[in-house]
What does this fold into?
Amino acid sequence: MISTFIQLNPLQLTFYSAALLAIVASLKVITGKNTVHALLYLVVSLLAVAVCFYLMGAPFAAGLEVIVYAGAILILFVFAIMMFGLGQDETLHAPNIDGSKVNKFNLWFGPFLLALLLLIELVYAINSGEVQAKLTSNTIDAKQVGMLLYGPYLLAVEIASFLLLAGLIGGYHFAKPEGVGLDRKKDLGEHG
Amino acid sequence: MTQLMLHSLLPVLIVAFGIVLSLLLIAWRRSQKLILIFTITIFSVALLASFSLFVDLADAVQVTTLVKVDSYGLFAFMLVLVASIAVSVLSSMWLTHTTEVHDEFFVLLQLVVLGAGILVISDHYASLFLGFELLSIALVGLVGYSRDSEFSVETSFKYLVLSACASSFMLLGIAFIYSYSGSLSFSTEQLMFDNMSDLSILVRNYGHGDVLFYRVGFLLFMVGIAFKLSLAPFHLWTPDVYQGAPTPVTLLLATVSKIAIFIVLMKCWFSQAIFVDTKSSDENMLFLMSIFAIASMLIGNALALKQQNIKRLLAYSSIAHMGYLLIVLIVISPQSVALAWQSALFYLTAYVLASISIFMTVQLTQYHHNKSELNVDDWQGMFWQNPSLAVLIIVAILSLAGIPLTMGFIGKFYLLNVAVQAQQWWLISALIIGSGIGLFYYLRIIFVLFTIVNEKNIAKELIPVSLTLSPAVNFSVMIVIILSVLLGIFPDLLGNLLVTVN
It folds into this structure.
């Protein structure tokens, strides 16, 4: 098994190590007790997946992964955690700030290490001529994706817009305060 | 897009257009009655459009790579629309309790129907997944719709989390299938015809990888589908969600969602040469399907035996019915695919009519009793108080049980025919044993209907059912009874329709 691992070319090697990082980070997400710490690992996991996409020759998908998931959705998560006001649940597993310096270091060491490894990989992939030569040979860029979306997959785009509408209306229904949307005519005692 | 393509997409386009128009309508005037009438109109127009298309359509029309309109899909969409009209009528009885205007309910209902419409005509994993998600997300909103009821949040959370898990399994499965075939179209032969860009040529070169990936992929794909169809190992959510959801939504779950998912499963399954062709037929996958089917039949029927709550009973019986229906997937020659389609569509029609009848009665009596939990005993002596409703239930129950002279019997006969052709003796024996167990709880309901209420029961505060029905409700009850009996006695009316189209 080790011999096959050595036979891998640099591109495959970086790809598999990024994939491994993603798996490790995801495992930390679901085993972590503190929500915010889990989110930190989730960012790393998503970034590792983005690197995987990049190494597969899909820089556009990698960019989307970073912007949409690591950027927008994670922010939403943080907002949700703040707004739910989890209180006891959140503080129960919070680290003790008064602890020693080693404790504080422990807190950020895990995500830091994973992110650092990811950074080293990315820098290596960009710097290495061999990897770059392989990557640029078959790149799927934004133009190709756009042409597909507005060509054969036009209907999919339309269906996706209805999907978003369904999510919006469902979410609105669960979130709206009591008493909104009363029939004004019924209130006035007239016929609907 | 040519005119023919637009024409064949018409039923789905009408529903989509209806959604946009209802949003405008809500912005203009919020009125419960207006949106209800509008929704029913949209569904009826779409029904007419699909019927005329169903009669006219000579050959299947491929609309882009995503969608392929054929007469089987159109027939299924007609079933979906009929069920949705029934849901709208039922919900108009239920939503009048509060002063709130429930526009969202009808918009979500139309979105569910749109999702189902996309599923029944899809020919591509991308459109399958989008339709699947549209259906489930809109259903999540509907399942927990009555926010003041006891189980609303629990029910919709259960449904949301489990269906998200199922979708992610399915997505992984689709990825594995793609890694094998190099195409997201259902049928791999399609690959020759699509020359959309150099991307697909690039992808084609990767095709035909390890068949193990394909099997694993299809297995994971089946997990997602089996969750939605509530097949045996993935059925645990069904009774809770059926019980917690409002009755019209339960009808929606039982009919629209199941029809759409089953039809798309059939389309996907039959276009995989590996399952249908005798030479390359994959014994392992067929065996796995039989396990799914047999387990669903036995578990569903066995768990339904002791149920008191009508909705839970129907949930378990629906598990069994989906198990029976899985039989049609196990064909071993391309010639019997047409028969499999006819059997499935006939069986689904019988199932939809029976479900509509029973849930209609559940809604009416529930409203009368003014309670959220309806037990079998609440129907005690209904025959003497309210014969038309009781006859409705009796016809539906007999049809579900598969007693001769009902549609359910003919449907089961079709299934047996398919199973005999495929020489699946284990499936046949499971079907017979399952139906035998099923008779017990189905007939119990009928006995309860005829029980004369005595004084001992009145002491238990079991008020005899004596509700007066409005003429419109009475009329629709009569129509459903006549339709079920007519199609049960003359099944050829429907059977010939299904044969001649193709």
Observations:
- The mean pLDDT of chain A is 79.
- The CA atoms of residues 1 and 138 of chain A lie 29 Å apart.
